[in-house]
TrEMBL record:
Its EC number is 3.6.1.17. InterPro entries: Ap4A_hydrolase (IPR050126), Calcineurin-like_PHP (IPR004843), Metallo-depent_PP-like (IPR029052). Pfam families: Metallophos (PF00149). One of its GO terms (molecular function) is bis(5'-nucleosyl)-tetraphosphatase (asymmetrical) activity. Residues 26-232 form the Calcineurin-like phosphoesterase domain. Keywords: Hydrolase. This is Bis(5'-nucleosyl)-tetraphosphatase PrpE.
């Protein structure tokens, strides 16, 4: 490593490496597709067993909720199905932040309903469903019912999600980074929401950035970033990146397409 501007370590192309002798996976945006998540976790568990790995790690890239049909089931699975001997780490995505904002201030954050929030309300048994144009009273009633129906462990899960995870030469975040700032100064707006400013930047960061948030047809990789969001809720394709040493490969689990893409956010 050589020293870069602002005291950041500057990586050379092609030299990124995961933690020594550790097997790792990064699972892209699930968005309420519990069926695909189950398939992917079974495949990863089999892979870990085949590799006889004793310290594997799985990093979930955020956006567990919204758009797909089973947000509540996804969180329930993540809270109850962790296999022994595999570390699970959970990043926060913009959809979890939007859901928390709705829980704290429903009328000011009613826009969440139009970006997948209605599907999440359905998964928690909220009825009748409001719309983005509903009265303030109806919006608050939906929020109150969501809080009542949601297990306390689900809320605690949402509140405990991590902003980023670092393993070896890789930085795992939901959306991306501001390449002009070191890791410790990154803003939530960039970590959870950034798109063009990060995606179109050609500067390498101190770490290879592994992210989701912006759907791609097939997983993307270059010397500065890896994208593992394949739009599972719309395409029926869930992606995970597999890391071992300096090797990166991709796993895809696929089922019948659920809905038409709506741009993803």
């Amino acid at each position: 490593m050589t020293s870069g501007p602002r005291g950041k370590a500057k990586r050379k192309k092609g030299l990124a490496s995961f933690a020594e002798a550790r097997l790792g996976f990064a699972i892209g945006d699930v968005h309420g597709r519990a069926d695909l998540l189950d398939q992917m976790l079974l495949r990863i568990a089999h892979d870990v067993a085949e590799a006889n790995s004793q310290n594997a790690i799985v990093i979930f890239m955020g956006d567990y909720v919204d758009r797909g049909p089973d947000s509540a089931e996804v969180i329930a699975h993540l809270l109850s199905q962790q296999p022994p001997g595999i570390e699970w780490r959970f990043l926060k995505g913009n959809h979890e932040q939007s859901m928390l904002n709705f829980l704290d201030g429903p009328t000011m954050n009613r826009g969440w309903l139009a970006h997948g929030g209605l599907e999440t309300l359905v998964s928690y048994g909220v009825s009748p469903l409001p719309s983005i144009g509903s009265s303030a009273e109806a919006i608050v009633q939906a929020r109150d019912q969501l809080k009542q129906n949601m297990p306390a462990s689900h809320l605690a899960f949402l509140q405990s999600l991590e902003r980023f995870v670092i393993v070896g030469d890789y930085l795992f975040v939901h959306a991306g980074v501001d390449t002009s700032l070191p890791i410790e100064r990154q803003r939530d707006d960039d970590l959870f929401w950034v798109r063009g400013k990060f995606l179109n930047d050609t500067r390498a960061f101190s770490h290879v950035v592994v992210h989701g948030h912006t759907p791609v047809t097939t997983p993307y990789r270059d010397h500065r970033r890896i994208c593992v969001d394949t739009g599972a809720y719309a395409t029926g394709r869930l992606c995970a990146a597999r890391f071992f040493g300096d090797s990166v490969t991709f796993l895809i689990e696929e089922r019948v397409k659920m809905a038409s893409p709506s741009g993803g956010d």
